[in-house]
Design a protein that fits this description.
The chain is mostly helical and about 450 residues long. The chain is about 75% helix and about 0% strand. It is globular, with a radius of gyration of 22 Å. The relative contact order is 0.13.
Length: about 450
């Protein structure tokens, strides 16, 4: 009997589906720059060596994304194409977290690079199939927004848990130390098997509207330029992602060095992540009422207002002013995080109608690769500009040029990138009405094929 993909999923099913995302949020928050700092402080490894190791790991990660997506699309099992990848990825996450988060005394840059690569591979094996899976759990425009919201909620709960962990009284300080990293591993060891069992057992495998059995990777590459909604969504994602990448890389230095509020940074992180979690249900309601891309466009307005507030915030201003600005930025990010991948599920349907192949894994792997590239490029751009303007992390007060370097990275560039994304979102063509037409045609095609097979 064919699974119903238009019936709303229960809250319990959605929570079980969001479980693996919680593991990704818990481990992914510490990846890269935070763990590199921990390694730098505790081992005799230069920042240059760590930077090279991170670059190599990110290049490896970029290559693995489309490969995992392609293989996931071609997987055929009784559990469906996505569940085996998520299961194996979670098991590998436990192993890589142990070695990556609990390094031996002899750890060096090579050790860091190898286990960073293993960790990113394990996360990719969970993330890409999970994203494609969410589009196969329902073919309904609004239900996909709901599924995407719960997935992001799981991710944010994981990130919030990481932010809260150093504040527990079992640790000697609130700093992020090797002891905190070890605690992350034990949490993963406990939670990963639980989320694995319930996501495999209680969440439907979903239904794809078209098979991808005879599809080739080169065919996918050739179809991208002809997929107008995808091209526009890619440009929007790059623009909005660069805003997030520049801002996320700069915000620690902005609070810690520029505003001289090092003790308040954990509060800023907790408030931002906590508010983003609370904003997700609001985003879901807005997407149901106004649509996905209008909600995302509205979210960018909040991000722009938040960055504009930071542009005029200086040392000595009250903490509430900083927190209010950060809340606005995170509110905008919440809308984009939910809407972008929900919109991509609709793009996959559009491509399936045009080509006859379901390439959900490949499209989501491409989106994930773009997202990671945004943070890599945005981070490099932020540090390059700060260095170019003479921003000095050792000074309590910056020069005029250094001051403008920080303003450029924390506010001006994010505003430019966010405004560009907002304008492009206005012209995004695949709304609810058009997607309903696409879905009906795909279902009619599937029913015709089933009738032929039965005869």
């Amino acid at each position: 009997m064919r699974e119903s993909v238009n019936k709303p999923l229960t809250i319990r099913t959605l929570l079980f589906f969001a479980g693996p995302s919680m593991i990704l949020g818990l481990t992914g928050t510490a990846s890269g720059s935070i763990l590199a700092g921990v390694y730098a402080k505790n081992f005799d490894i230069s920042l240059t060596a760590l930077g090279t190791a991170m670059l190599m790991a990110r290049l490896f990660d970029a290559i693995s994304d489309p490969l995992i997506g392609y293989l996931s699309d071609r997987t055929r099992t009784r559990l469906g194409p996505r569940k085996p990848w998520v299961a194996f990825g979670l098991l590998l996450t436990v192993i890589s977290t142990f070695y990556y988060f609990i390094p031996p005394d002899s750890a060096d840059a090579s050790y860091f690079m190898i286990w960073y690569m293993a960790a990113t591979l394990s996360w990719t094996m969970v993330q890409i199939p999970l994203l494609a899976w969410q589009g196969e759990l329902s073919h309904d425009y609004n239900e996909r927004s709901r599924i995407s919201t719960y997935r992001v909620v799981g991710d944010r709960i994981g990130r919030l848990s990481f932010a809260l962990l150093p504040l527990l009284p079992i640790f000697a300080s609130t700093s992020i130390t090797l002891e905190v990293m070890e605690a992350v591993f034990w949490l993963v060891l406990i939670l990963a098997p639980i989320t694995l069992v319930f996501s495999m057992w209680k969440v439907p495998k979903g239904t794809r509207l078209q098979s991808s059995k005879n599809d080739r990777l080169i065919d996918f590459i050739k179809t991208i330029p002809r997929n107008r909604p995808m091209i526009l969504l890619m440009i929007i994602t790059i623009s909005g992602g660069l805003a997030d990448g520049v801002f996320s890389t700069t915000v620690f230095l902005y609070v810690d060095v520029y505003l001289q509020r090092a003790d308040n940074f954990p509060v800023v992180l907790l408030v931002g992540q906590g508010f983003m979690l609370l904003a997700l249900p609001v985003c879901l309601v807005m997407m149901r009422r106004f649509g996905k891309h209008p909600t995302w466009a509205g979210g960018t307005v909040f991000s722009i207002l938040g960055c504009a507030t930071l542009l005029f915030t200086v040392q000595g201003d009250p903490l509430w002013m900083l927190l209010a600005a950060v809340l606005l930025v995170y509110a905008g990010s919440a809308a984009g995080n939910v809407a972008s991948y929900a919109m991509l599920s609709d793009v996959v349907d559009y491509d399936t109608l045009k080509t006859g192949h379901n390439r959900g894994g490949q499209y989501f792997s491409l989106a994930a690769m773009i997202e990671k590239a945004n943070f890599a490029v945005g981070g490099a751009l932020a540090f390059y500009i700060l260095d170019l303007f003479g921003f000095d992390v050792k000074l309590t007060a910056q020069s005029v040029l250094g001051d403008w370097g920080m303003k450029t990275t924390i506010a001006i560039l994010p505003i430019i990138f966010s405004a560009t994304a907002m304008v492009l979102l206005i012209f995004y063509p695949l709304n609810e009405a058009r997607h309903n037409i696409v879905r009906r045609r795909l279902e009619q095609r599937r029913d015709r094929h089933q009738t032929v097979d039965e005869n």
